[in-house]
Amino acid sequence: MPELQQIPTLPTQPFRVDVALHELLQRPSSLPEPRPTTERKTLPNPVFPQHPELLHEVDEVDRAAHEAVLRTGRRHWPPSRILKTMRGWMFPYFQSRLLPGDFQPIIAYLFTEWKCNLDCHYCWSYNNRVKGMTEDTARRAIDWLHSTPCRVLAPTGGEPLLRPDFVHKVVYYAAKQDFWVYLATNGRLLRPGVIDRLADAGIATINFAVDAIQEKPGLPKAFEHVRENFDYLVRRQYRYGYTVFFNTNICRNNISDVKELAKIAHENGISITFHINEAPMLEQSHFKHLQENDTYIRPEDFPMVDDLLDYLIDKQRQGWKMVDSIPRLQKMKDFMRGRGEHWGCRAGQNWLIIRTDGTLAPCFPMYNAKYNWGTVENPQFNRKQLEEMKKGCEPHCFSTLGYNLAYCYSAARVMRWLFKQALRGFQGVTGSFD
User: Fold this and answer.
1) What are phi and psi of 356, to 5 degrees?
2) Mind giving me the DSSP string for 220-249?
3) Residue 159 forms part of a structural domain
4) Residue 263 lies in a domain
5) CA–CA separation, 244 vs 210, rounded Å?
6) Does any domain span residue 239?
7) 126 within some domain
8) Of 196, 265, 181, 185, nearest in space to 233 by CA
9) How many domains does the chain have?
């Protein structure tokens, strides 16, 4: 494998894939227009509360459940919750293996917003000039996905909670359609009232993104701003049955923060996932922090990041819950040095993103690509095109979701995992796939 471009403080060009691939993906006027329609669909207004008996202050039952998780490392899942998770993940997985055709999605990321309330200097995944998703697009997306094996829906952005009422409608409608709904948020707008509504609507998991303990230049996702929201969220999860995990980006200027956040996750009995900071894969014309960015990892920072990764690996071996497997954490060392690999990406086959306007793309880095992959109700993913594209982009990508799905897309591996979990009664199934 030839050396790839490193992840520098001052990138020499605004993208990391090779020029030919970049030109193909950004060729003008090839992005499709959403299919015109005379019927404008809406999302139903959520009934709230659906479960008034759960809408009360944190009590001794909640505290006892939390203490039990901290003491045993496991949560007790009732049969109804186990079945719901199987319907979200296991049944769609087997459907995707058995049904004909290359496009059999399991998970879809619904970009309800491409706006954000924060400006993290490493993040190009937002643009405050882009309009949010309409109810018509959201409902058509959910209805269309329901006709496929897909039963995991992830409202994301940007920051989806810029419109909490809209997200409440999406979660409510998707959960009624038997989707396992997973929300990604920076937590600033995840106030108690919002938590109660999302939990009552049927949210399954909340991806709580935080990068630092106290805010610092370029890293506004600080725990100090969201501590009260986090505490409320963690204590309510046992009552409603959702889960919570931290999502943390490893930068050159938050090494000690990452250790502390891993400790906070451990002390609260939740899992944590890590990303290694990356410059944009494709050019992002709206991104204003490409140059002189203190979050980017420089070659002189490699030993410091290596030590952090060794620390996290040691903690995982001690039983701390982490989404990333130990081999995955070890590979971060190679990736930040420009030594990528082909890892079997299945974007555009078993997962996809739906943009705010209803157009489709295979994965997050391709959000602003102009290649025609179709629209909601009319996907145009082509296996040969995806395979050729991935020869150029896959070694440059360290997608946690993409890697985990590819790693799990082995019947033998899945069967071994299911057998192991069945022996445990499907209790305490958190942390990495390993």
Assistant:
1) -60, -30
2) --BHHHHHHHHHHHHHHHHHH--EEEEEEE
3) yes
4) yes
5) 12
6) yes
7) yes
8) 196
9) 1
Distance separating alpha carbons of residues 72 and 88, to the nearest angstrom: 26
Q: Domain residues for 184?
A: 19-31+59-423
Query: Residue 148 and residue 352: Cα distance in Å, rounded?
Result: 12
Length of the chain (residues): 434
In Å, how far from its chain's centre is CA 26?
A: 24
| Residue 89 DSSP symbol | I
Which residues sit opposite 250 in a β-bridge?
276
Copy the structure tokens of residue 373. 């992959």
Per-residue pLDDT of the chain (434 residues; tens, 9 = 90+): 344 444 443 455 687 888 888 888 888 655 666 666 668 999 999 999 999 999 988 888 888 888 888 888 778 878 887 788 888 888 888 888 889 999 999 999 999 999 999 999 999 999 999 999 999 999 999 999 999 999 999 999 999 999 999 999 999 999 999 999 999 999 999 999 999 999 999 999 999 999 999 999 999 999 999 999 999 999 999 999 999 999 999 999 999 999 999 999 999 999 999 999 988 989 998 999 988 899 999 999 999 999 999 999 999 999 999 999 999 999 999 999 999 999 999 999 999 999 999 999 999 999 999 999 999 999 999 999 999 999 999 999 999 889 888 887 776 666 676 666 666 666 654 555 55
N-to-C CA span, the chain: 26
DSSP one-letter string for 395-430: GG---HHHHHHHHH--HHHHHHHHHHHHHTTT-S--
Average per-residue pLDDT for the chain: 89
Residues 6+ apart with CB under 8 A from 385: 371
250-271 core/surface letters (b: 16 or more CB in 10 A; e: else): bbbbbeebbeebbebbbebbbb
- Strand pairing partners for 219? 216
Q: What residue ranges in 124-202 does DSSP mark as E strands?
A: 152-156, 180-185
Q: What is the pLDDT of residues 193-252, one digit of tens each?
A: 999 999 999 999 999 999 999 999 999 999 999 999 999 999 999 999 999 999 999 999
Sign of CA dihedral 389, 391, 396, 398: positive
In the numeric block, the tokens 């199987």 are attached to 86
Q: Return the number of other C-beta atoms located less than 10 Å from residue 228's C-beta.
A: 10
SS3 state of residue 207: strand
CATH number of 214's domain: 3.20.20.70
Q: How far apart are CA 246 and CA 248, in angstroms?
A: 6
Of the candidates 193, 108, 195, 218, which has an alpha carbon nearest to the alpha carbon of residue 154? 108
Q: What are phi and psi of 58, to 5 degrees?
A: -55, 130
Which residue, 18, 24, 15, is CA-closest to 2? 18
**pTM score:** 0.91
